[in-house]
Amino acid sequence: MSEFRPEEHRMCEASYFEDLEVGRTFYINSRTQTDALFSAFQLASGDNHPIHYDVEYCKRQGHRGLLAHGLQVMAQTAAGAGVFPHVIGEALIGFIEASAKFMAPVYAGDTLYPQLEITELKPGRTTGVVTCRATIHNQDGVLVLEGEHKYLVKKRQPEAQP
User: Fold this and answer.
1) Does domain 14-154 sit in CATH 3.40.50.150?
2) Could you give the residue ranges of the DSSP H alpha helices within 90-143?
């Protein structure tokens, strides 16, 4: 029996910047936005606006129920909830930028389907910037969020010359 090596305990071999392709899509697991998630996000964010926790206030504003906080929705695009960071592995240096447009409301009970799609690969000398289009659709197929993520990823190190 071979010796266990923790550094080899991973889902897959790391993909470096050169291994990535524009158009590659990474799905993130769907998640229903429950009342518990709404409460947890309100607690974590400290946002006390009644649009996020007072159903009657929401109805008076023309909404069918509690409205999700925009950052709660955007958090569903976190790459770590899917396979992207496993595919990149130790080549990932960091998450360096994010933007989002909120296209439609998200309510308690909605199920969200996030994904990331590589749209640009900008090489540098030893690293590259991977730009991904971030989208979230709800259970009715409505686009509720569209945005962009950028990641700094290592290039393969050249083989040492003898």
Assistant:
1) no
2) none
